[in-house]
Amino acid sequence: MQQFEVSEILWDSWGIPHIYAKNEIELFHAMGWAQAKSHGNLILMLYGQARGRAAEYWGSNYIDTDRYVRTMGIPDRAEEWYEAQSDKMRTYLKAYADGINGYIQAYPDEIPEFLKVVLPVSEVDILAHIQRVIHFFFVVNPNQIAALSQGEQMAGSNAWAICHPARGANAPEHSASQKAMLLVNPHQPWFDLFLWYEAQLTLPNLNAYGAALVGWPTLGIAFNDYLGWTVTVNPTKGADFYELSLRDGGYEWNDGICPFEVKSQTLKIKQEDGSLREEPLVVLQSIHGPVVAKTESKAIALRVVGLDRPYLLEQMWEMVNATNLSQFEASLQQLQLPLFNFLYADTEGQIFYLFNALVPVRSQSSQDRGDWDYWQKVIPGNTSDTLWTQYHSYQDLPRVVNPPSGWLQNTNDPPWTVTFPTLLKPEDYPSYIAPSNLGKMPHNILRPQRSIGKLLNSDTISFEDMVAFMFSSRLELADRILDGLIAAVKTYGSELGMQAVKVLESWNRHANADSCGTVLFIQWVQKIELDNIFATPWQSDSPLETPCGLIDPVFATAVLEEVAADIQSRYGMLDIAWGEVVRLRIGNQDLPGSGAGSIFGSFQVLDIIPVDEKIFQAIGGNSFMMAIEFTNPIRAEALTIYGNATQPHSPHVADQLPLYVRGQLRPVWRTQTAIRDHLRLREILDISSGLFIQANG
Fold first, then answer.
1. Tens of pLDDT along 619-646?
2. Among 302, 348, 377, 13, which Cα is nearest to 139's?
3. pTM of the model
4. Does the keyword Signal apply (predicted)?
C-alpha cells in the first residue's frame, strides 16, 4: 500500500485530472475542485435546474424544466435521500460540494455572475441532479411524458467483454493477447447533463481510471488494478403510465373513489427587469404517482422505479473499490441503480454480463397482461391488479459469466443476444422483463447484428482490432439492400437513376468522411423510411441475417431518383463526400464527420441534425471511448471526443476531436512517471484553507 505525503491533482496535457489523495474525503474534495475547473458553468446550470428554480434564476426559458422537476418531486425527494445517507457518504458528498465551492471562491472571475446565484452548492444539490439524470432522463424523460409513450431508448452504447483464453470452450482462440479485454463506447448527446468527465482517482489502496457524468462525484465507467466495467442503456421498462377515471374530485380505485393528494407550490420566474413573477403549480398525486396529463374525465399518472432506492452513489463507490468479481457482484446486488447493462472483465480473465434493472413484479393475472407489449401502453389505473409495489430480486435478472463463446457484447439489444449461440432464453424469464427478440426493436436491429457478426466471425481479436472496429462505419443496412436497390434501378430507372447507380456501385458502403455515396444512400433511406424497406422482416430462424431484401423495387427506384435530383440541386454533384455534408462543430473546431445513426447499422454512431439546406451537424453518438486490455501492467487507451472541459476559455474544449477524426484513441497515463512526462499543472491541497495551490513540477 503506497502512502502520499500530500493530496494533489496532476493535470496532464489533455486536461485530465489525476487525483492523488491521502484519504477519501480529500479525494472527493479534489474531484469537486477538478470538475469545477473543467465544467463549473455547466455544473451550476445543472444544479440550478435540479433544484426546480432555474426560471427563478434565469428566466422563462426554464419554466418547463422547473414544472417537470417540481412535478416529479425531485427537490423534496433529494432532501429525503440525503437524510437516508450513511454518515460516511454524507461526508463524501460534503467534500465534493466543498471542492466545487472552493474552486469558484478561489477563481471567481471564471464564473459569470448570473450563475453564482446557485452558490453555494450543497450535498442535496448533488443528489437532486443525480436523480434528475437517472430517473427522469434515462428511465423516463420529458419527451416520453409529453407523448405518453416509452418508445425506444434515447441513448445508446456499444460494449464488448472478451475472455481470457483459459475461459470457455472457444475462448483460447478469441483473445489474441490471451488476456481479457473490454470495449467501452457509450453513445450520448454531446451537451448538457449527458457529458462524460474523464479522471483518475488514486488513494493509498486504489488506482481507478474512467469517466463520471458531469456533476457526479464518482466514476460511472472505470477500471482499477484488478477489474473494469462499462455500461449500456438496456431496454427495460422502469416507468408506467396509468389512466385514471375521474369522479367526485378523485379517481376510481377498485370499488370506490380515492382522493388525490394535492401539493400546491409556487414557481418564480425572473423577468427582464429583474423582478420575479409568481405562478402556481398544483401537483396531483395518485397512489401510482404524479399526474402528468389531465382532461375533464381522465388523468394520466406516472410511476417510476427506484425512487425508494437512495444509495446508488454508495453502491457505485463500492464498485470502484472492488478487487474481484465476487465483490463487484456484491455491490450490484444492492440494486440501487434502476437500469443499465453491465459488462465486466478482470485480470483473472473473467468476463461477466448483467441485465441490471429494477424490474417491477407486474401482474400476469390475465393472458394479455403479462407481456412486454402490454406494458408499453397506457395501463388501466382503476384497479390494484395493475399496480406494482415490489421489484424482482437480483437472482431473477439475466446474467452470464464466462460464456463458452469467449465473448459478451451489448449494443442496447435485449439480453438474449449478449453472446451467440444464445445462452439466455426469454422463456426462462417474465415476459415483461425485456423485448423477446431483436424484432421488437425495429430501429436497433442492425447495429447489434453487426457487433455479433464481428465477434462471431473473428478467430482472434487483438487490442488493435478492437480499437479499429470502434471506428468502423460500414453500414449493415447497405449490405442488406444495396444490391437489390442497384438491380431495381437498372431495371426501372431513368438516366438520373443510372447516374445514382454509378455512385452507389463505387461507394465503399461506409460513412467515413471521405465516402462518396453515403449522402445519397442515407437520404434515400430517410425519404423512403426504414419501416417500408424490407421484403423479409426479422425472422427467429435467421436472427442475424434478417431483415433483408427490398420490398418494392419500383417505389424504391422512384424515391432514389427524387433524392438524387434533390442532392444534385443542392450540392451540384451526386458523389459529394459524407464529411463535406456532416460536420463536427465544437468550440472553434469545424471538422468532417464519420459515422452514422444506429438505424443504419454503423458501429461508429454519429447523430446529426440539419443546420441549413446543405449542412448537418453532429450532436451526439460516440462520446467517451476506451479500450482496456488486462495485461500486467494494464494497457488502456481512451478518448473523450468533445474534450474534457466546457469552460469557455479552457484549451481542452474539443482538443481531442482531431484524434476522433483520425480514428485514434490516446494512451491512458496511470503511473506518476507517465503523468509527469505529460504534466501541465500541479495543484496541492492546502488543508488550512481547503484550496488547491498551484505548485511547480
1. 999 999 999 999 999 999 999 999 999 9
2. 302
3. 0.96
4. yes
Using DSSP's 3-state secondary structure scheme, residue 235 falls into coil
**Which of 297, 219, 206, 207 shows the shortest CA–CA distance to 251?**
297
Domain that residue 264 falls in: 239-304+360-392
Domain count, the chain: 3
Answer left, alpha or beta for residue 437, where phi above 0 means left and psi between -120 and 50 means alpha. Answer: beta
Q: Is the predicted pLDDT of residue 171 greater than 50, yes or no? A: no
Q: Encode burial over 610-633: b for 16+ CB neighbours within 10 A, e otherwise.
A: eeeeeebbbebbbbbbbbbbbeee
Instruction: Decide which of 346, 377, 392 is a domain's last residue.
Output: 392
Residues 246 and 387 in one domain: yes
- The answer to the question of residue 156 being in a domain is no
- For 521, the grid coordinates are 444512400
69 alpha carbon, distance to own chain's centre? 20
Asked if residue 73 is part of any domain, the answer here is yes
3-state DSSP assignment of residue 586: strand
**Listed residues 392, 412, 434: the one ending a domain:** 392
**What is the C-alpha separation between 89 and 91, in angstroms, rounded?**
5
Which amino acid makes up residue 493? Answer: G
Read off the pLDDT of residues 374-390 as tens digits, 9 standing for 90 and up. Answer: 999 999 999 999 999 99
Rounded CA separation 173/168 (Å):
10
Cα 487 to Cα 40: distance, rounded to the nearest angstrom: 56
Cis omega before residue 421 (within 30°)?
yes
